[in-house]
What we know:
It is built from 8 helices and 14 strands. It is an alpha/beta fold and about 280 residues long. Strands 4-9-6-10 form a 4-stranded mixed sheet. Strands 1-3-2 form a 3-stranded mixed sheet, with no helix packed on it. A 3-stranded mixed sheet has the order 5-14-11. A hairpin with a 2-residue loop joins strand 7 (about 115) and strand 8 (about 115-120). The chain is globular and about 50 Å long. The N and C termini lie close together (about 5 Å).
Amino acid sequence: MEERARPLMNSWSLFSPCTNIVIFGSKNETVKDRCRTVRYIFVKVPARSTPHLHRLKVYQDFLARAIAEGSILSDDRILITDARDAVIQTPFFSHPLSKRYLTESDLLFSKEGSKGGEVTFCEDSRDRARWNHRWISVCFGSEALQALERCDHCHVICSGAFAGKALALVDFLTIVDDTINTLGSECTSTHGADQGVFNFIIWLGILRNTTLDYHVANNWESPIFTLGLGSPYAILRSGLVIPEGSRHFPSLLHQYDRNKELYTYIQKRYEDFNNETTNV
Length: 280
C-alpha cells in the first residue's frame, strides 16, 4: 500500500472495520482484512486525459458493473474520496449528517471554505481560489464564469470527496463523463479540471434538470470537512478535529496535509494503528 494512504486505511480499520474498500491505483490485488474486503484495482490514465478526470470515468464504470453483477445494490451508500490526504474520525455512514443527507437526497457534495469565508469563483489572493476561477474559464468560457461570479450562493464545491447512493452516483458520473467528452484539450489536459466540471454541472442547472436529488452542505455543516484553503479548525480533548466554532464534528477530514501542524497531528494520531493494518 502506498505510504501516503496509510493514515486513511488505519482510520478505517479503527472506526469502520467492516466497510468494504476499493482503492484505484498502481496494482491489482484483493485482500481480506478483518471482516471486510479491500480491493486494489490498477488504473492506467490515457495520454489525452489527467488522473483527476479519468478517475471519474473509472468510478462510473466500476459502480455500473458492480450494480449489474449484484455485488453492489442500487441504494447502497458509497463514499468516494481521495486516499492520500484523508482520514475518518468516526464511522462515515452512521454519522448523523451522513444519515440525514443521504436519506433526504441521493447525492451529497460539500463546499470549501469557512463560515464567513466562503470560497467564490472570483479571483482573489488564495492560490486555489484562482485555480477554481481558471478551471471554469478554460473549460466553459467567460459566460459561465460570469454567471458563477454573479451567483451569491454558488460557492466552490470540492470534487475530491463526495457521497451518494450507488445508482445515483452512476447517473451523476455519466453526466460528468458526457460533459468532459464535449470539452477541448486545453481543459482536459489541465490538472484538477474535474472540480470545474463538478461546479459547472451542479451550479449552472445541468444537475437540476435531472430527477436526481442532491444536497450541497456547507463545509462547517457536513460530515466531510475540507481543509485545503486554510479553513480554521479546533482539536477537541477527545482528539476530534472540527471546524472552528462549529457544533458539528465531521467524519471525514479531507486535505489535512495542506496544514503542516495538522498533518503532523494526524500522522501521529494514526501511526499507533499501523500494526492493525499490516496485511492491507
